[in-house]
Amino acid sequence: MVGPAATAESGGDAARARWLGLLARANPPALAERMVDAEATMAPLPDRRWLRPPEIGSVMLRGRTAGTGAPFNLGEMTVTRCTLAFPDGTVGHAMVPGRDKAHAERVALADALLQRVETRAAVEKRVLEPLATVEEAAARETAAKAAATKVEFFTMVRGEDQ
């Protein structure tokens, strides 16, 4: 199934945004290893054609003062993007940081596979879950390092201040 119904079945636009973010942030060699593992458990993958082959470009990053103020241009970032399609009409997109075309191809393939009912479970189990576990562990480690530098301030009460 393709289009809005496929997105709704796969958890909606928010779920797709989450998995695209996770895939784009993933370590490229780790994603490649996970995709090989997932593909080994699936029937032969459908043929795919490039709607937009991998291409390198840049995007403007914008920010807001205090998160709510007027937007301003922060700077540019190099990205690689691509779009592929399966014969059944399923379309996979990717936009990843950096200049790694193979990484963008894997993200687009995973996006397309996650939209298909027959391949979603295998990709979720063998690709998304392990990558999410690694990302969560890294976030916990960063939080623990930050917590170790936390300074508690206190004020002693002087007798004449009471």
Rg of Cα set: 21 Å
Distance between the termini: 73 Å
State which percent range the strand residues make up.
15-25%
Structural class by SSE content: alpha+beta
Mean pLDDT: 89
Spatial sequence of strands, sheet with the most strands: 1-2-3
Largest sheet: 3 strands, antiparallel
> Can you tell me the overall shape?
elongated
Helix % is 40-55%
Tell me what you see in this structure.
There is one protein chain. With 162 residues, the protein is of the alpha+beta class. Helix content is 50%, strand content 23%. The chain has helices at 4-9, 12-25, 28-41, 101-115, 117-148; strands at residues 49-64, 71-85, 91-97. Strands 1-2-3 form a 3-stranded antiparallel beta sheet. A hairpin with a 6-residue loop joins β1 and β2. The N and C termini lie far apart (73 Å).
Record the SSE blueprint.
Elements: H1 4-9, H2 12-25, H3 28-41, E1 49-64, E2 71-85, E3 91-97, H4 101-115, H5 117-148
Antiparallel strand pairs: 1-2, 2-3
Quick tags:
162 residues, 3 strands, alpha+beta, three-stranded antiparallel β-sheet
Quick summary:
The chain has 162 residues and is an alpha+beta fold. It is built from 5 helices and 3 strands, in the order αααβββαα. A hairpin with a 6-residue loop joins β1 and β2.
